Structure formats: structure tokens, C-alpha cells
Amino acid sequence: MNKTVVCSQVEDTEKIGTEIAEYAQKEGYTFIALYGDLGVGKTALVRGFVAFYGDSHNVMSPTYNLVNVYGDIYHFDMYRISDEDDLYSIGFYDYDDGKNIIITEWSENIEYALPDRYLRVTIKKTENHENERVIEIKTVGK
Ligand SMILES: Nc1ncnc2c1ncn2[C@@H]1O[C@H](COP(=O)(O)OP(=O)(O)OP(=O)(O)O)[C@@H](O)[C@H]1O
Ligand SMILES: [Mg+2]
Fold first, then answer.
1. Span 41-67, average pLDDT
2. Nearest Cα residue to atom 10 of ligand 1
3. At residue 63, does pLDDT exceed 80?
4. Is the dihedral of CA 131, 21, 1, 31 positive or negative?
5. d(CA 79, CA 7)
6. Does the pLDDT value for residue 99 go beyond 90?
7. Which helix (H) or strand (E) holds 89?
8. Which pLDDT value is given to residue 118?
9. Would the CB of 61 count as within 6 Å of ligand 1?
10. Ligand 1 in reach of 48 Cβ (< 6 A)
11. I need a labelling partner for 38 at 20 to 30 A (CA). Which of 9, 31, 60, 75 fits?
């Protein structure tokens, strides 16, 4: 999947999250790296992603506890991660076993730790409208 979509409200972004989950399951992607500035809608997208699995989880920003777990999905916020020691101390490498699903906010901070194959999702605000977002989805690796 290499596509760019425009979302005009938060529900659209959640829906894209659900579509990404469906695609990831179909194509066997277990790692989703999210990119984008503060408040752009990364956690909103994760809410839709998790909803695909049908369980009613309360998806919140893991900014303070760094990882939230919903079933087999590990939702990380890398905002405060500054080096690989930090990644080891939050157990990042233990969770990324190829079976669990990993979704990371602030992937900008962990470029060196990304796997060979993953979905790269970039969310940007636009100048058109306060609630408009451009979401780019790219496959990385084979
Ligand atoms: N089209 C949209 N898509 C996503 N969020 C939107 C959109 N329009 C408005 N919003 C609002 O933007 C905010 C996005 O918050 P969210 O916590 O998802 O951002 P975030 O990227 O995870 O931020 P952080 O970097 O702090 O973790 C919410 O308040 C949401 O209602
Ligand atoms: Mg967030």
C-alpha cells in the first residue's frame, strides 16, 4: 500500500487506522511506525487501528507510561526516548518478537530501531482547515 488520503475530521483518521489494521493483517505487517507532530492525530489513528480487532479498549496516549497494551497490540509513545538504552529499559526489544503487533508514535526518535519490514504512516496538518490532515501510508521492505 502506498497511498495518501485527506481526512477532514477525527473520525476519518480513526477509519484510516482501521483500514491500516485490516491491510496489515492481510499482508502480514506486524510493525506500524507513525510520524507527525504533537496533536496531529497519531493516537486517534491508533484508536481506529485497535478497533479493527473488535475489542473495546480504551486507547489513550501512552506519553507517561510509554507503552499501552491492548491484547497483542503494543502501543508505544517514543516522544521521551532519546537513545537505545531507553528502548531497552522500556522492554521494546522484548515485545518486538514478530508475533505481537507494534505501533509506535514519534517514530522519528527510533529510526535506528525500526525493523526491515513495516508500514510507515505520516500525518500532517494542512493550511486549509483546522481539522484537515494528510495521511501518507507507505510500505517499507518486501
Ligand atoms: N482529521 C483529524 N484527525 C485526527 N485528529 C483530529 C482531526 N481533526 C481534529 N483532530 C483533533 O486533533 C487531536 C489529535 O490528538 P491525538 O492525541 O490523536 O494526537 P497525537 O498525534 O497522538 O499527539 P501527541 O504527539 O501529543 O501524542 C484530537 O484532539 C482530535 O480531536
Ligand atoms: Mg499521541
1. 85
2. 10
3. no
4. positive
5. 24
6. no
7. helix 84-89
8. 97
9. yes
10. no
11. 31
Whose cell is 476519518? That residue is 12
Q: What is the pLDDT of residue 64?
A: 67
Find the ligand nearest to 12 CA: 1
User: What letter represents residue 120's amino acid?
Assistant: R
For the chain, domain boundaries: 3-140
Please work out whether the CB of residue 128 comes within 6 Å of at least one atom of ligand 1: no
Q: Is the pLDDT of residue 97 over 90?
A: no
Binding site membership of 40 for ligand 1 (Cβ less than 6 Å): yes
The predicted model scores a pTM of 0.95
**For the chain, what's the residue count?**
142
CATH architecture of the domain covering 3-140: 3-Layer(aba) Sandwich (3.40)
Please say if the pLDDT value at position 62 is more than 80: no
Q: What is the mean pLDDT of residues 63-85?
A: 89
Beta carbon of 50 within 6 Å of any ligand 1 atom:
no
Ligand 1, atom 29, lies closest to the CA of 39
Ligand nearest to the CA of 16: 1
Q: Indicate the residue type of 130.
A: E
- Considering every ligand atom, which ligand is closest to the CA of 38? 1
Is the C-beta atom of 10 inside 6 A of ligand 1? yes
